[in-house]
Amino acid sequence: MMDNSQPPNHSPDDYLPQLSDSNGDGESTRKLSAEQVKGALQITASTGKFWLDWEDLKSMLSFQLKQVLSEYPEPTMTDDQQTSALGETYLQLVKRLEEALFSFIDGPPFTLQRLSEILLDARTIYPNLSKLALALEKNLLVTSTLTKSSDPYPTSVAQFEQAQDTQPQPQPQPQPQPQSELEDQQPESERATPHFDSVENGRELMTVDRDEVMTEVDAEVEGGISIDIGTFDEIITACDTNSEPASIS
After folding, report:
1. Do residues 140 and 109 lie in contact, with contact meaning Cβ atoms separated by under 8 Å?
2. Which of 51, 119, 190, 211 meets the CB 3.0–4.6 Å disulfide criterion with 64?
């Protein structure tokens, strides 16, 4: 018989650790699954967002933090060796980092994406536990927090990447051409021809032809009009003075 039922819709709660009442007192405690934790952190590392309740995600981060720290050789050293390598014992380091994580009440630190990336690939990024501890501390000693995302929850990193690929990419805007290129494209007849005004220091230069003045004077003399020599010299001097451009003092 063919099953025509629709596959169930995934939600963030599907990726929470399974409940277990193995403690025997009737209360349910979350049993963390390493694969579930990594799956949730991979989505956060890829998107920079979170969909789970902060208390649940905080438990996942704490689980992964302890798991990663335990993979280094320091836990098997003596207390003196740990103090020499880390400046504190291994248990003190774990407690300090976990207290920094649980100090966030309203939401995860805004460095959640980087924090998830480190916890997923710590041994590759930081071969020494001391350097890993400094990086974790740096990403936990912040004050700003993130808010829970309202976007559709991706069931896997591949689904998120596929959704990103289907989004329309912004078209590049045409770059404005330089003015020199625009002028080169204009026809010769349309190019602007510079105009030079015969003005210097705000005054229009007056050019007087000395011969023209002499002709006018000669015409007046021939017409029976007498002119004094001194007056004639003053006219010529005035014309020469007006024809020279004013200089800037």
Report:
1. yes
2. 119
